[in-house]
């Protein structure tokens, strides 16, 4: 997953949380970057037809952008489940965040064959908790 995909995934999640356009500040906070960096990348994504940006309102994914964001989120979910359920990594969220930028589609597909992923993934992702709903429920049960 490249940087553009990480931005698309984050826009997708913030749109779900805010039930509307993703504000630059919210994106910057979630990504741990400056608002200027967000504006620059959102501009590039808009040029590629993946995002529509309205000044002072925020970014909204286009249909193509939403498809790529959903794919990126699914890769992230696969990583979380693999780290949590197969490798039993305690801080699987931090590890998944670090690995998501270097995992390609082929590796994600292979990891997917050995995890128990929900069929509704990535729609089962809990945007505010920034993790799979299934993993949230598992954590609450412990």
From TrEMBL:
Residues 1-62 form the HTH dtxR-type domain. InterPro entries: DtxR_MntR_Metal-Reg, Fe_dep_repressor, Fe_dep_repressor_sf, HTH_DTXR, Iron_dep_repressor, WH-like_DNA-bd_sf, WH_DNA-bd_sf. It holds the Pfam family Fe_dep_repr_C. GO terms for molecular function: DNA binding; DNA-binding transcription factor activity; protein dimerization activity; transition metal ion binding. Keywords: DNA-binding, Transcription, Transcription regulation. Belongs to the DtxR/MntR family. This is Iron (Metal) dependent repressor, DtxR family. It comes from Haladaptatus litoreus.
């Amino acid at each position: 997953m490249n940087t553009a995909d990480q931005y698309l995934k984050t826009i997708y999640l913030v749109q779900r949380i805010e039930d509307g356009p993703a504000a630059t500040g919210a994106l910057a906070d979630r990504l741990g970057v400056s608002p200027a960096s967000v504006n620059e990348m959102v501009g590039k994504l808009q040029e590629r037809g993946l995002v529509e940006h309205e000044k002072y309102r925020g970014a909204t994914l286009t249909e193509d952008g939403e498809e790529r964001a959903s794919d990126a989120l699914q890769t992230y979910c696969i990583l979380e489940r693999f780290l949590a359920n197969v490798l039993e990594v305690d801080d699987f969220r931090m590890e998944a965040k670090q690995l998501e930028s270097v995992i390609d589609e082929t590796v994600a597909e292979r990891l997917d064959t050995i995890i128990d992923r929900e069929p509704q993934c990535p729609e089962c992702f809990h945007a505010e908790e920034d993790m799979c709903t299934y993993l949230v429920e598992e954590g609450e049960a412990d």
